[in-house]
């Protein structure tokens, strides 16, 4: 997901403006970056802001006002509490963020308590995304300097408090493991003993952060702080919510986008034991029961029928025709170097290609669920959301209650991938809850989740290139055609008709080519909602770019790795990860043969989400055209690593997610209906099918990059190129399983 600057423009799929008014703050001054005072009940409370890419020097810029978005609290027993402004959905923020804080604060990270932040767009606005949002692989990138600075600032104040208590110079005191020690006398005071005095001291204005060589935590492997609860069952996800008087509701919405509820058999549904109520809105119905089984059986008995509306005849074939036609018209120019079109037209050695990528569902393991307790004067919601302020805003608008009367209880998320950046499910749940007394947990079935997702857009790309007599590219054109997520999510980000996310990974082509033209055609598929999907622009454009550059290498008769290396003279970090991945994979050496299968290696390289990554995939294809992934070798330069265990886990997870999408991921429609419904026809990789994934991290002290999405973006082209190496058949349309790779 690209950086966002205007999230207040977001609206839900129900056209409800779901975001509270949030004004982006100017860069804070040194004085406003950190404020320290006494905590309620005693102790030290430090509040700080997380400004975009803010260095210590930049924090000195003058501005007015104070809008902190993070809190450190140290009580008189020495317990450090960090109010977490991000959500945990498997990406490791509940470990990496405390590591940044604890590194400079000099405390044991295992003793840092975490509290999930409540919705507050002023206090907790993400510096890179412009709102209280978890997404875009930005968490560590945005918090790396500010969180460390906050920890270092509080540490210096605690040292100053101790020095004043002992009447010694601060330079003779040091902090470690939550204790301040005087070097001369050996006297010690723990942080809890110092917080009251520290709370009265001025905030230091010159805070020096540690050199990388002095890190004790950052860069070292550390166990996940949320693992224990997930193992012993004490961890609580949104779907785990329980409370006195809670009932459960199952939901069915119109199978056609834009359709309406027509009829229901209420009597049959109410006859099911445990069914308590049936509630309806214009395009959906919910059955409320004492438990999930009663609600599920009641919904089956209800047998709703629908009026399909304007999209009743929509099909994938028709959508494809519309996209192809739209792609014939010149789009908004994203990049124009030289004269690419004329160079290609005049060349005798050129290549043209059309690439297609399908709609994709998120299909997280935890399906959509929202628990609502709506009263006349209050609304409480329990869920897992990546956008708590938007959820709060949506509930406020639908319920008619003031924002401060809506409370969001955010939980661990069992898979977000961008789906929980949306608040359509919150809108729906509150609309239902207006007709219900008492708390109700609304749970979407897997089928409802897949068939009423907000999908990764369908893309239709046209490319052309020309080569000189040595096989080097002289020109490159790339037209991206697809819907604009940013036009809905953050309209001001679309400038001169260019959606910056839609062209990310295409506009910033890393290869040295003298003539480059990239343009964008916005085409909205009728009725189909689109949204972010574990990265959008790069997951689409890296596949297209890295597949097409492979085509150029083949046409030139060059090795795919060397061809890329020769074109990356101005991209040394990309070149380095490419060469590392190729070396570790044994590029150039023959693959071990597999009886009855064709084998091949493929490669990709990218810069996306602030990180440099290259992947080499080893795959095989059997006589029936089924593709097997055996090994994925990944080299990554993500700048300064915080927790290498998280780096590996993120890449491994991204690879598995990417394999599922590349091989089988596809949402298709007929008669306005999504044909896929569950994991039998929206297939995901099984554990027995998982390849070996090797991750090699390039040591670096550069600013950190993101890692939640790059592993997924890099996988598809490397796999497609491996299929070409094995079969000689080029994959230009995903999923790969749709391409017909049987033996000739």
What does this structure look like?
The chain is of the alpha+beta class. The protein has three domains: 7-226, Aldehyde oxidase/xanthine dehydrogenase, molybdopterin binding domain (Aldehyde Oxidoreductase, domain 4), CATH 3.30.365; 238-309 and 368-443, Aldehyde Oxidoreductase, domain 4, CATH 3.30.365; 317-359 and 455-738, Aldehyde Oxidoreductase, domain 4 (2-Layer Sandwich), CATH 3.30.365. It is 28% helix and 23% strand. The chain has 18 helices and 28 strands. The radius of gyration is 27 Å and the shape is globular. 54% of the residues are buried.
Write a concise keyword list for the protein shown above.
744 residues, seven-stranded mixed beta sheet, Aldehyde Oxidoreductase, domain 4, alpha+beta, 3 domains, single chain
Short structural summary:
The chain is α+β, with helices and mostly antiparallel strands and 744 residues long.
Class by helix and strand content?
A: alpha+beta
Query: Do you know the CATH topology of the largest domain?
Result: Aldehyde Oxidoreductase, domain 4
Radius of gyration: 27 Å
Summarize the main sheet.
7 strands, mixed
What's the CATH class label of the largest domain? Alpha Beta
Overall shape: it is globular
* Count of helix runs: 18
Model regions low in confidence, pLDDT < 50 over at least 5 residues = 1-31, 52-69
Can you give the helix content as a percent range? 25-40%
CATH architecture of the largest domain: 2-Layer Sandwich
Q: What is the straight-line distance between the termini?
A: 40 Å
- Output the CATH homologous superfamily of the largest domain: Aldehyde oxidase/xanthine dehydrogenase, molybdopterin binding domain
What is the residue-averaged pLDDT? 91
Report the oligomer.
single chain
**Strand line-up of the largest beta sheet:** 11-12-9-19-16-17-18
How many domains make up the 3D coordinates?
Answer: 3
């Amino acid at each position: 997901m690209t950086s966002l600057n205007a999230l207040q423009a977001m609206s839900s799929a129900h056209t409800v403006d779901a975001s509270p008014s949030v004004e982006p703050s100017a860069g804070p001054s040194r004085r406003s970056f950190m404020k320290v005072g006494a905590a309620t009940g005693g102790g030290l409370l430090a509040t700080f802001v997380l400004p975009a890419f803010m260095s210590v020097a930049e924090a000195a810029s003058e501005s007015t006002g104070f809008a902190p978005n993070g809190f450190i609290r140290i009580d008189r027993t020495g317990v450090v509490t960090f109010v977490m402004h991000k959500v945990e959905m498997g990406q490791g923020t509940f470990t990496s963020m405390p590591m940044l804080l604890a590194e400079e604060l000099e405390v044991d990270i295992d003793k840092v308590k975490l509290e999930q932040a409540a919705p507050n767009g002023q206090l907790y606005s993400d510096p890179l995304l412009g709102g209280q949002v978890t997404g875009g692989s930005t968490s560590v990138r945005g918090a790396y300097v500010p969180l460390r600075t906050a920890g270092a600032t509080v540490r210096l104040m605690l040292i100053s408090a101790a020095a004043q208590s002992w009447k010694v110079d601060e330079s003779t005191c040091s902090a470690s493991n939550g204790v301040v020690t005087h070097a001369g006398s050996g006297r010690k005071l723990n942080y809890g003993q110092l917080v009251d005095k520290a709370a009265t001291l001025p905030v230091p204005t010159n805070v020096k952060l540690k050199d990388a060589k002095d890190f004790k935590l950052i860069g070292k492997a550390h166990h996940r702080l949320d693992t224990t609860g997930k193992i012993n069952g004490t961890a609580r996800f949104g779907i785990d919510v329980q409370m006195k008087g809670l009932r459960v509701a199952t939901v069915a919405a119109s199978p056609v986008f834009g359709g309406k509820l027509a009829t229901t058999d209420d009597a049959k549904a109410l006859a099911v034991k445990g069914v308590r109520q049936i509630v309806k809105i214009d395009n959906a119905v919910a059955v409320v029961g004492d438990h999930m089984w009663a609600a599920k059986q009641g919904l089956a008995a209800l047998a709703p029928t629908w009026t399909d509306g304007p999209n009743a005849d929509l099909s994938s074939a028709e959508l494809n025709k519309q996209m192809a036609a739209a792609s014939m018209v010149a789009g908004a120019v994203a990049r124009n170097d030289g004269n690419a079109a004329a160079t290609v037209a005049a060349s005798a050695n050129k290549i043209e290609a059309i690439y297609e990528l399908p709609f994709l569902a998120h299909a997280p393991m935890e399906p959509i669920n929202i628990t609502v307790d709506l009263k006349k004067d209050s609304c409480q919601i329990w869920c897992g959301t990546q956008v708590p302020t938007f959820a709060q805003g949506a509930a406020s608008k639908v319920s008619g209650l003031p924002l401060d009367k809506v409370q969001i209880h955010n939980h661990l998320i069992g898979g977000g991938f961008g789906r929980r950046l949306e608040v359509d499910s919150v809108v729906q749940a509150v609309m239902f809850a207006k007709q219900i007394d008492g708390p109700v947990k609304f749970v979407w079935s897997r089928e409802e989740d897949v068939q009423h997702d907000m999908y990764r857009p369908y893309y239709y790309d046209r490319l052309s290139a020309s080569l000189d007599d040595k096989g080097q590219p002289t020109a490159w054109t790339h037209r991206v055609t697809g819907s604009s997520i940013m036009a809905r999510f953050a309209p001001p980000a679309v400038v001169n008709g260019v959606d910056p996310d839609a062209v990310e990974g295409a506009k910033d082509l890393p290869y040295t080519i003298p003539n480059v033209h990239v343009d964008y055609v916005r085409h909205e598929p009728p009725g189909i909602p689109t949204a972010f999907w574990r990265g959008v622009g790069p997951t689409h454009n890296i596949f297209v770019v890295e597949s097409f550059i492979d085509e150029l290498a083949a046409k030139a008769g060059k090795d795919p790795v060397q061809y890329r290396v020769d074109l990356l003279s101005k991209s040394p970090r990309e070149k380095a990860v490419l060469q590392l991945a190729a070396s570790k994979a044994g590029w150039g050496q023959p693959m071990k043969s597999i009886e009855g299968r064709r084998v091949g290696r493929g490669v990709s390289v990218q810069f996306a989400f602030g990180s440099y990554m290259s992947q080499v995939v080893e795959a095989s294809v059997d006589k029936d055209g089924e593709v097997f992934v055996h090994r994925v070798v990944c080299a990554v330069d993500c700048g300064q690593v915080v927790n290498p265990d998280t780096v590996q886990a993120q890449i491994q997870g991204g690879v598995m997610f990417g394999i599922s999408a590349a091989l089988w991921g596809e949402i298709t429609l007929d008669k306005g209906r999504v044909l896929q419904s569950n994991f039998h026809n929206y297939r995901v990789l099984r554990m027995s099918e998982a390849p070996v994934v090797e991750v090699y991290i390039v040591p670096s002290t550069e600013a950190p990059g993101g890692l939640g999405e790059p592993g997924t973006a890099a996988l598809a082209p490397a796999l497609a190129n491996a299929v070409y190496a094995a079969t000689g058949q080029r994959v230009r349309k995903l999923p790969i399983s749709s391409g017909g790779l049987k033996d000739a």
